[in-house]
Amino acid sequence: MIFTFRPNSGSWLLAGTSALVFASAASAQTPANEELTEVQVTGSRVITNGNDSPNPVTIITTDQLATVQPTTVADALNILPVFSGSRVAVGNPGTGLTNNAANVMNLRGMGAPRTLILFDGHRVPPTTQDGLVDVDMIPQMLLQRVDTVTGGVSAVYGSDAISGVVNFITDTKFNGFKFNLQGGTSQHGDDETVDAGAAYGTNLFDDRGHFEASYQYRDDPGILNRRAREWGRHEWTVQGGGITANPFHLVDNTRFATTNFGGRINNGPLADQQFATNGILTPFAHGTPTGTNGYESGGDGGYYNGSLKGALTTHQLFSRMDYDITDTVDGHLTLAGTANHNFNYGAYNQLINTTISSQNAFLAPAYQAQLAAAGAQSFTFSRLFADLPRIGTDSHEDQYFVNGGVNGQLGAGYQWDLSFTHSGAKINTRNDANISNQNLWAALDAVVNPATGQSVCRVTLTNPGLYPGCEPLNPFGPTSVSDAAMDYVLQRTEFTARTIMEDVAASVTGAPFHTWAGPVNMAVSAEWRRLGYQAVSNAQPSSRADCTGLRYNCNSRSLLWADATLANRSPVSQKVSEAAVEMDLPLLTDAWLAEDVAVNSAVRYTDYDTSGNSWTWKLGLDWHFNEQLTLRATRSRDIRAPNLNDLYQPQTLTTGTFTDLLTGTNTLVPVTAGGNPSLKPEVGNTVTAGIVYVPEGLPRFSVAVDAFHIDVSDAITNIQGTNPTVQTVCYASGGTSPYCALQTRPNGFTDTSAGNAVTSWTNTVINIANVKTYGTDLEINYATTLYDNPLALRGLATYQPHIAYLTPGLTTVDMGGVAFGANALQASPRVRVTLLANYKLGNFTADVMERWRSELKWSGDPTQVYAQPLVPSVAYTNLNLAYKRDAKAGILQLYFNVQNLFDKQPPPAAGAQSNGNIGVFGGFALGDDPIGRYLTLGARLSY
User: Are the C-beta atoms of residues 229 and 270 closer than 8 Å to each other?
Assistant: First the structure.
């Protein structure tokens, strides 16, 4: 790719290829009068000039990322409109099962598994237990730029590149020293981050070798309390039945109608009374009905308080050595390692309709007498344990990456490359507040020891030695649980997952012949890859409670753990063999209306030992009419093979509260999920077409427009029994739909009484859907002067009106222009816009970024009825002020950044699919800013 610097223009211009490359005082590595040389274009092995790439490529330097969004590279990348629905640290509280605070990139909102992540052109192994790449694991201090290819390129890079590729590229020629130190805090005084890094590079051995290394540390405590924000204290949810008679609608101040923080008695003579204070019953005040049984607005009911932003602590080490072995052969070795610690909270532990003895030792004698007079030997009881630790996700991720290789010239005009990559990742995720159900049930059955007059567990008297150390638990009141009982009931459960990847790749490039229009560049490449995975858990989902000695709540189907982690996964592996050919064929040069015309094509054969073989291909056209106008287009066939998690995910068993639309009830029931070894690769067919215009009469101005259409068949789809649409299809069929197998209930599908409430849900993955999307990307660049000082302007926009999921037997769901996804689908605004301005005045530089999204529908399911206006559009402004000066020690830059300058609060929003998780999910649309104004102050030094 060719970058051209125009002195005093204040911006880098790249004609013909979409690029976010913004000049700022942050950059101290390239002198203003130096022109960068050609570099390899991501998306091709034979094109080295970005002007000739038929694939749209967005390039952003890490210096510019740090200027407009001085957080992680992943956070900054998500300002680009081509990204939507990425998994980020904000708004994804932990569930005790997965690391939802990981940063996972998602191009086009089509799902992270369809975005391929590369590090210096090499595939990165999965770092999360669900087979995705947490890009926070990629060392960032010596990154030079990030290339994003928005189009299918599986023929060049292999599986997963359906919606595109994100390539993190290292500055392999860095010389000198640089240091960065910054700190930030929100205007509320929380989320106080510290980021420090240093890098060093030098030439060795009479300039035949080069060495560089870096270390970076980041500590981001996150915001572990959603109610730390005013909007978070509203507990927004969507309630209702989704029908005309009872439409979905946004509810403020949502509360559970049958439970609270002190406990509520649900039946018998003391029904509908609560322990608002320890040990004392008072009437339970109900709020306003919401249209959904079990949920009210206001009243004495409880709610959860999940994390707003997960915590992240990271240490990143990187080193690289290259050496000219001969005049024509070079060798290189890269060593990188990252250790991340993520932490966030989800819901509270709770009791749901748990049976308690009417003679419980902690129940006041007057209440025991009332129950005895009514002949009630027990009662059911519900409570949220706000005095116990919240259910959390505590994840430690460790990754290493080793890449070595040699490359050189082969004869006249040919280059060869041979590389080997060995990399691995380990993730250990634990839940320090998991309830052992059998310990809980033993502790809840408290009696008075006649010998001592003290409260003890009944099993201590009836079954001595069966439950050693049992401590009676007092559930009656907001702060009634003793530390001893808490320690007895709560136990740490954890699982450790390991992924190992070995990759051997070789290629030969050159021009074996010429046409009348110039050399025909070709690349022949081959790759062999092995990916292995295993997981070990100390809490098996199939583990059952031992009911011996327990008289309440336990039966043969009762689970041992309130939240079971992953089951053990014996080692599984996947081997891939690939071969590919790519060619860039010039057709015309210096002709009328054809200054330069070339066709780029590639074909790849891929053989997976787990899912068979596939052919992928790409055909591209790059037509330069003249220096002002370029036409580019591609057509490709791409694949995403099922990953090891898709195929072999061990069965997981969690519990959750979801609305049962048949009976109108909400109960805490188990949810089972697992992999499917019968999956086959999904196939993507992509068409892109665009123009780049650089008008002759308007210097330093360019505009690029690219349209895209993607159709994925045999899409690997997560089918969730809890999904309202899936439920509706089942019930409409009278129980005959195959989707009815995703739930179990006592009496079939004609009984709508509460006694027929669902007893379990099932989630699974199958090749069943088609995914279709289309849209247009726009980029406009203009560099000028204002009061004789350089001003650079850039605008990027994506229009993506539809992301349609067509699943047999289900209503077509369109996630384009939608706020919340269901059934594991990602939602995306119809229009996403990012505007940037850079103005330089002497040693001072000001950068302004404006980010806007269009209004949002509440659901992509057209059968669901909402009595609610659309979620309003919203815009956020970032400001960066920098001062740079030359000093004897090097170049020093001081900067001050304000994210969300005007403290714009997110419009209230929530999704119907998570209406039972009050205070955990929702409150704002994913991608909006819930944190508010954030201030960062920092310094960079380089020499």
Answer: no
C-beta separation of 857 from 873 below 8 A: no
Residues contacting 312, CB < 8 A, separation 6+: 72, 89, 101, 136, 218, 219, 220, 222, 340, 341, 342
Question: What is the model's pLDDT at position 49?
Answer: 63
Answer with the residue of higher pLDDT: 33 or 179.
Answer: 179
Judged by DSSP in three states, 759 sits in coil
pLDDT for res 51: 63
CA angle 941, 321, 576 (to 5 degrees): 115
Contact predicate 439/467, CB 8 Å? yes
Beta-bridge partners for 726: none
Per mean pLDDT, which of 104-113, 147-156, 267-276, 913-922 is the most reliable? 267-276
Predicted TM-score (pTM) of this structure: 0.88
Asked whether 186 and 931 are in contact (CB, 8 A), the reply is: yes
CA distances (Å), 801 to each of 78, 354, 548, 614, 706, in order?
19, 48, 59, 31, 15
Q: Within its chain, how far is the Cα of 790 from the centroid?
A: 38
pLDDT tens, position by position, 2-33: 222 222 333 333 333 443 333 332 222 333 33
| Amino acid identity, position 321 | M
Domains of the chain: 226-306+348-390+437-477 (no CATH), 572-942 (2.40.170.20)
H/E element holding 918?
none
Q: Which helix (H) or strand (E) holds 760?
A: strand 760-786
Residue carrying structure tokens 């309202």:
724
* Distant-in-sequence, close-in-space partners of 172: CB < 8 Å, separation ≥ 6: 120, 210, 212, 320, 322, 332
Calculate the average pLDDT of the chain. Answer: 89
Q: How far is CA 886 from CA 23, 28, 141, 484, 517, in A?
A: 17, 10, 22, 62, 48
Q: What is the DSSP letter of 754?
A: G
Query: Can you say whether residue 308 is alpha, beta or left, with left for phi > 0 and alpha for psi between -120 and 50 degrees?
Result: alpha
